[in-house]
Amino acid sequence: MSEAREAAKAHWYLIQCKGGESFRAAENLTNQGFHVFHPLLEVEKKRGGKLRWVEEPLFPYYLFIRLDQMDDNWRPIRSTRGVLKLVSFGNTPTAVPTPLVEALIASGEQRQEQPSENVYFRAGEQVEIIDGPLSSLSGVFESAKGDERVIVLLNLINQQQRVELSSRQLRRSES
């Protein structure tokens, strides 16, 4: 079967991981031959009294997996260490829109460090994400969380999600 035809049959799905085990789940699923995407975000954290850049999951407790309903054996997923469940509505796993996952993958590959700006936003203000896996998405500024972090509301996966970002990743929306 051609690669293009095979890719057309496969869809992205969302896996919910056990607390703090998304890295373990991603590694174990990859070792079993599954195609997994675990979007990460570089954040500045205080470790041992020093600020250091560390990678954290963009969506804590979640990762994406590409599966074909007809060809892939989904049973091992449920018993994989670190996996809690395949996100479903009713009894049917729900596919995540492919353009959303492709945009996350592409923006992660093009990640750039932005210069630090002291920009202040007001609650309810339209903002645009300019760096990181969610770059080019628009959202609504909700609140500041410390000096460098902010909470933004984004419409993702058919519902509004709170996302914590560095204030350096935002700019006021021009629209």
TrEMBL record:
Residues 9-108 form the NusG-like N-terminal domain. It comes from the Bacteria. GO terms for molecular function: DNA binding; transcription antitermination factor activity, DNA binding. Pfam families: NusG. One of its GO terms (cellular component) is cytosol. SUPFAM superfamilies: N-utilization substance G protein NusG, N-terminal domain, Translation proteins SH3-like domain. NCBIfam families: PRK09014.1, RfaH. PANTHER family: RHO-INTERACTING TRANSCRIPTION TERMINATION FACTOR NUSG, TRANSCRIPTION ANTITERMINATION PROTEIN RFAH. Interacts with both the nontemplate DNA and the RNA polymerase (RNAP). HAMAP family: RfaH. Belongs to the RfaH family. Enhances distal genes transcription elongation in a specialized subset of operons that encode extracytoplasmic components. This is Transcription antitermination protein RfaH. The lineage of its organism: Bacteria, Pseudomonadati, Pseudomonadota, Gammaproteobacteria, Oceanospirillales. The gene is rfaH.
